Amino acid sequence: MSQAKTSVVALICAAGQGERAGTPLPKQYKELNGVPMLVHTIMAFLKCDVVQEVYVVLSPKDAWYDVLVAPLVGDAVKAIRVGGETRAQSVCHALGVLDDSHDDTWVMVHDAARPCIQGSFIKKLHDEVLQRDAIGGLLAVPMVDTVKYSEDEVQVKKTLDRKKLWAAQTPQMFKLDVLYNALSDALVDETIAAGITDEASVMEWAGVSPLLVQGEVANLKVTYPHDFKLAEFWLTQMKA
Ligand code: CTP
Ligand code: MG
């Protein structure tokens, strides 16, 4: 008897305003090497054969997706216009839309602002989570800087043990209904919600340990103005 194929959908978060990047349009629409950032991000998932469907969560007020992105990515990508005030709210609202029609499905949540994600790393995350029978997992990179802990932004209280520190990236992969339930519960409490900055943190809050899968530094999150050039560099390297 043939085994049913694991169902995996990608959810790309593109409902932010990109304030730190300081661009006239939200940063996900800025062109990198002549193509909007969000198109690079979407194409990585559309081309990856472990992903069956690609969704993008947009702000309800978004005026740019239909003009700048939809003509380049086509109907294969479905836009969900339910973005919230925070990233966690955007993800939670979108999962709420997908939950009823996606039984026994894994979701890979990814930042639109990480356009240099490579298909090989999407597949690596997928394969390691499934092969190790993990509750879910995330791409992350070991810290290279020594990390200082401060409570007042002035004085160092202590130095953290770098060997135990990882910088979390996306995609992050979990069962869609499990993640949706955990996020819905966590976002009820404002104090807890404030500490939810990625999917792994909400699963940790729910009491489970996500799997760390080593990613690469090229998968940066475009945040500040100087990051655009850096992302263009990595996109060029990836094509070479
Ligand atoms: N995001 C989202 N909904 C929000 C906030 C962020 O979908 N309410 C998305 C962004 O579009 C981005 C990703 O989450 O792709 C990571 O967030 P971040 O890098 O912080 O982007 P912005 O929130 O847009 O930028 P800033 O914080 O500088 O305003
Ligand atoms: Mg933000």
TrEMBL record:
It holds the Pfam family IspD. It catalyses: 2-C-methyl-D-erythritol 4-phosphate + CTP + H(+) = 4-CDP-2-C-methyl-D-erythritol + diphosphate. GO terms for biological process: isopentenyl diphosphate biosynthetic process, methylerythritol 4-phosphate pathway. The record marks R162, K221 as: Positions MEP for the nucleophilic attack. GO terms for molecular function: 2-C-methyl-D-erythritol 4-phosphate cytidylyltransferase activity. Keywords: Isoprene biosynthesis, Nucleotidyltransferase, Transferase. It is an enzyme of class 2 (transferase). The keyword Transcription regulation does not apply. Its EC number is 2.7.7.60. The record marks R20, K27 as: Transition state stabilizer. Pathway: Isoprenoid biosynthesis; isopentenyl diphosphate biosynthesis via DXP pathway; isopentenyl diphosphate from 1-deoxy-D-xylulose 5-phosphate: step 2/6. Belongs to the IspD/TarI cytidylyltransferase family. IspD subfamily. Catalyzes the formation of 4-diphosphocytidyl-2-C-methyl-D-erythritol from CTP and 2-C-methyl-D-erythritol 4-phosphate (MEP). This is 2-C-methyl-D-erythritol 4-phosphate cytidylyltransferase. The lineage of its organism: Bacteria, Pseudomonadati, Pseudomonadota, Betaproteobacteria, Burkholderiales. The gene is ispD.
